């Protein structure tokens, strides 16, 4: 591919039809860069474009918010599917990873495998409980179950060491626990 350098291009001036000001062309957003290197810019300058968008947003706030929320919700699910896939189920598609999680959640009655409770934390954005964490064996990559944050962390603090956990139980029993 051959690139043509246009050394003086940045010195071009351009007139905005809205504010009538003549400004350097970098005060206008790029609309498209053509394969031949020619840069096409928006007709309104950046400042007028922003004013227009702000005015539009102000007039359509409720509708725009609803649309953004719907968009974010839809994407949140896909993003979560990708995260689950990458971290725990590399052989599954993001959609299958989500299904796998739901399957496990139903099998555990929607609660932590250890305490049969929910995560104590409230998610700052959704206002609902945090979803249970996927607990897996870091050495084998094998998923064990779904745990609330507290018990997922607790196992981590015990290094998933069965001997250490058994000694902890014996210790508590010895002291009347
Ligand atoms: Zn302008
Ligand atoms: Zn728990």
Summary tags:
Wheat Germ Agglutinin (Isolectin 2), domain 1; 44% helix; two-stranded antiparallel ribbon; His-Me finger endonuclease fold; alpha+beta; binds zinc ion; 3 domains; 177 residues
Describe this structure in words.
- There is one protein chain.
- The chain has 177 residues and is of the alpha+beta class.
- The protein has 3 domains: 11-55, Wheat Germ Agglutinin (Isolectin 2), domain 1 (2-Layer Sandwich), CATH 3.30.60; 60-107, no CATH class; 108-177, His-Me finger endonuclease fold (3-Layer(aba) Sandwich).
- 44% of the residues lie in helices and 12% in strands.
- It is built from 5 helices and 6 strands, in the order ββββαααββαα.
- The chain has helices at 46-59, 61-87, 94-107, 149-157, 162-174, and strands at 13-15, 22-24, 30-33, 39-41, 133-136, 143-147.
- The strands form 3 sheets. A two-stranded antiparallel sheet has the order 1-2.
- Helix 2 crosses helix 3 (94-107).
- The radius of gyration is 28 Å and the shape is elongated.
- The protein starts with 12 loop residues before the first strand and ends with a helix.
- One zinc ion (ZN) binds at residues 16, 18-19, 21, 44-45, 47-48.
CATH class of the largest domain: Alpha Beta
CATH superfamily assignment of the largest domain?
His-Me finger endonucleases
Alpha-carbon distance between the two ends: 75 Å
Low-confidence stretches: none
Ligand list? zinc ion
Structural category:
alpha+beta
Number of strands: 6
Number of domains: 3
For the biggest β-sheet, the strand order reads 1-2
The CATH architecture classification of the largest domain is 3-Layer(aba) Sandwich
The radius of gyration is 28 Å
Shape, please? elongated
**Number of continuous helical runs:** 5
Largest sheet composition: 2 strands, antiparallel
Could you say what the CATH topology of the largest domain is called? His-Me finger endonuclease fold
- Helix content class: 40-55%
- Bin the strand percentage: 5-15%
Order of helices and strands: EEEEHHHEEHH
Average pLDDT value? 89
